[in-house]
Amino acid sequence: MAISLHILILVILFYGAYRRISVVRSGRGALFCGALVVKLSLTLLSFYIHTEVFKASDLAAYWHDAQSIADLMENKAVSYFTYLIDSQGSGDSPELLLKNQPRALLFAKILSFFYVITAGSAWLTAVWLSACSFAAAWYLFVVINRYFPALTPAIAFSLLFYPSAVFWSSGIQKEALAVPIIFTATALLFPFLLKKKPAAPIIRVAAALMLCIVLWYIKYYYAIVFVPLLFATALIGELSRRREYFSGRVNLQFILWISILISGVLIGRNMHIALSSEHFLSLVARTHHQVAASSVPENVAYMEELKATPLSFIRYAPQAFITGLFRPLPGDGTGSILSWGVALENGLLLIVCLLGFVFFIRQKFRPCSMAVIAGLVYCLSLAVFLAYGMPNFGSLMRYKASFLPFLLLLALAPFYQTYPGGKK
Fold this sequence. Notes:
20 helices; mainly alpha
């Protein structure tokens, strides 16, 4: 009965969205339906792989703890909500597998809510999480497309159809929350990035800030790159719109942007011990070697002599750059069908990026906005950072879902001779 009710609610929501989209923009309804079918199909595929193929994945631990926390609701609702707010101060402490992992525990708490409302249905929870993820991707698509209608095919493919990004932001995994948060926060502040006046600016900034706080607690290594870049670029855009003196001085804008960005990163480093200068390099190097040792050799981009020193990280920077952006490539991996599919996708991405760069050169480096620069810095920084910390190709592809849609969009933009925030 509960499953039938949830399916009915989802059908009503999706159909209502389809009807509204079809009325607002003819032809957009077909795109919505196609993207939704792809999302739900990859959601079910992701659920099957994590439950039947890779049974040792994190999903089992997440679901076990979600069930244990949800059991508090059956005994006493007050205990359940108290534990969600303060698990340390709560008198009721269920037996958990992830109790010593704060980020995983937070995700398990969120899952416990879905466990309660779906009567313990894991696949239905995966569908609900993916529905939220799809809504965020569609929202960002609409926002960007509003300003750049010529980029419709590129925006749609990058955000709604790019296989790896859609797959890894679906189902019961933290990326199914982190990626939608990144998309939604970007959509909320996108007018600021383009120096446009948005509706309800205070509400937009407050909502984006709240989302970024959640992102910090779920995936702090995404947030330490994403949040300073987003707010620094938005602030520069708003100052340029409001102050004519400031808008005409690109050098001053860039200096202020760099200053705000560095300040934001330094603040973030002081908020998490893993990001402090004393622990960061040693933690990343140690994690790199531990992951490599526990993985199949063919499925790892191993930096054998990586040490916790700046010079060692600089030495491996080119390898981290290529690995983070484009690997696994054909010839990497275990040779499975999934491995070959991902390698082919990355090979095509490499070709698109190279051609996009050539087209950009042919346009004689036509000026592009701070938004494009911020997007490139975000993609490149996160790619290198993730390659250092996660050499396993499977996990790396999951983490790359946080920036791959933006990278592909920026690579495709030169084909249309337009740039987000620049002139057409």
